[in-house]
Amino acid sequence: xxxxxxxxxxxxxxxxxxxxxxxxxxxxxxxxxxxxxxxxxxxxxxxxxxxxxxxxxxxxxxxxxxxxxxxxxxxxxxxxxxxxxxxxxxxxxxxxxxxxxxxxxxxxxxxxxxxxxxxxx
Length: 121
Hints:
elongated, alpha+beta, 1 helix
């Protein structure tokens, strides 16, 4: 009789555990399908152009798993009179999850040309 109760309790625990795993898996799949709206901004940090990107949840956004900021700077080269010229220099921030910020800085003697956010679905 005691062995029968233990077997029944063990079977009940196995069934509850299986349904718990199914619920946990469904919750993860729903979180992965969240939609985000990503934005980027540029500001000066001690005279250096700095770009930052971030993503926030939005019903009108798109599916995003990672994002990063792309910053294009005009770097000044040459030191002589009349020999200075600019070279476009592209920098990318690290890939980050939607709740985190991706940041990148241009070097000294640089000007901001453009910036944008790159995403991965």
